[in-house]
Amino acid sequence: MLRKWILSIILNAVAIIAVAELFDAVEIEHFGYALIAAFILSILNVVVKPIILIFTLPITIFTLGLFLFVVNAITLMLAQWMMGDTFIIDGFGWAILAALIISLLNMLLERLVKDIVN
Predict the structure, then answer these.
(1) Residue 68's closest CA among 42, 38, 96, 106?
(2) pLDDT at position 117 over 80
(3) What's the CA gap between 7 and 4, in Å, rounded?
(4) What pLDDT score does 112 carry?
(5) Which of 27, 41, 7 lies closest to 109 in space, CA to CA?
(6) How large is the average pLDDT for residues 17-41?
(7) pLDDT value at residue 118
(8) Measured between alpha carbons, how far is 34 from 9 in angstroms, rounded to an integer?
(9) To which H or E segment does residue 88 belong?
(10) In this structure, what DSSP letter does residue 77 have?
(11) pLDDT value of position 69
(12) Close Cβ partners of 5 (under 8 Å, ≥ 6 residues apart)
């Protein structure tokens, strides 16, 4: 269980670095800070995200789940705010795009690692 969580944090950090390399509007100092950002995101996803989901459930249902990208962007912006100058996103629109790309990359990386590990 712990090994899976640590692997998830590492893969999330790789996705954050990839997004930072892909877009000039997303900046992160280095991989160590990406690991910290991924750790903070994992904590936010456990603690804060369920609360946000409860409050935004009607709009999430109305948009057929597309509002979840906004919720993911909110958690990403919270992580960015907590990291200070070491993790910068130039606006909420970029946070939505970054959250989308990070989610896709995480999905691909987890499938790739699952195939290699098993």
Answers:
(1) 96
(2) no
(3) 5
(4) 87
(5) 7
(6) 95
(7) 61
(8) 9
(9) strand 87-89
(10) H
(11) 92
(12) 42
Q: What is the pLDDT of residue 33?
A: 96
Q: What is the DSSP letter of 86?
A: G
Distance from C-alpha of 23 to C-alpha of 69, rounded to nearest angstrom: 18
Phi and psi based region of residue 58 (left: phi greater than 0; alpha: psi -120 to 50; beta: remaining): alpha
Q: In the predicted model, is pLDDT for residue 44 greater than 90?
A: yes
> Is the confidence at residue 26, as pLDDT, over 90?
yes
pLDDT of the residue at 62: 95
The residue type of 69 is F
Structure tokens at 100: 């989308």
DSSP 14-76: HHHHHHHHH-TTEEES-HHHHHHHHHHHHHHHHHTHHHHHHHTHHHHHHTTTTTHHHHHHHHH
How much is the average pLDDT of 34-61?
Answer: 94
Task: Determine the Cα angle at 14 with ends 8 and 15, to 5°.
Answer: 90
Residue of 31, 19, 33 whose CA lies nearest to 90: 19
d(CA 52, CA 47): 10
